[in-house]
Amino acid sequence: PLPYAYNALEPTIDEETMRLHHDAHHAAYVNNLNAAVEKHSELFSKSPEDLIRDLQSLPEDIRTVVRNNGGGHVNHTMFWEIMGPNGGGQPTGALAEALNRTFGGFDQFKQQLSQAAITQFGSGWGWLSMRLDGTLIVENTLNQDSPLTEGRYPIMGIDVWEHAYYLKYRNRRPEYVNAWWNVANWDAIAKRYEQARKGR
What we know:
Low-confidence stretches: none
Helix content: 40-55%
Largest sheet: 3 strands, antiparallel
Oligomer: single chain
Order of helices and strands: HHHHHEEEHHH
Number of helices: 8
Distance between the termini: 29 Å
């Protein structure tokens, strides 16, 4: 279940979009991932994150399905968590300091991540990720690809698949991305940053 009501992110993200995005799109990723893993029961001991972190070790017959649907599940699980009804503003503490060091300030970081999301051709995501050496990077990925597959940890991501915004924003992706910052849950994002620092 979502950690808040379907209409909790209005007016930035409308209730109908949230219902379709969560109950139809995310649910399909979960169902397809489960169906793939059921063919190889030994994989049930692995988390979805572990599966997409080490795609090359998976049986070839399910590798693409896990990449797409496991990635979709992991990406969306994060996405719901890093948004909230009392979102917006700016981060504080260690995350804010890291963004200042890396990007020269929050505004510069916000501009870079927004640009990565807006310019992602077709479906995909804009990300703030951490490399294994602890440095931060802004990047984008196609479809449901995850930074985890490339050895990086996703701190936060902006979903720019059309189903994430099209009912409200139509083809105005920049408008959606700019509005998205109003629902960013900086407490949850800061927790992911701390997890990345401890777990790398």
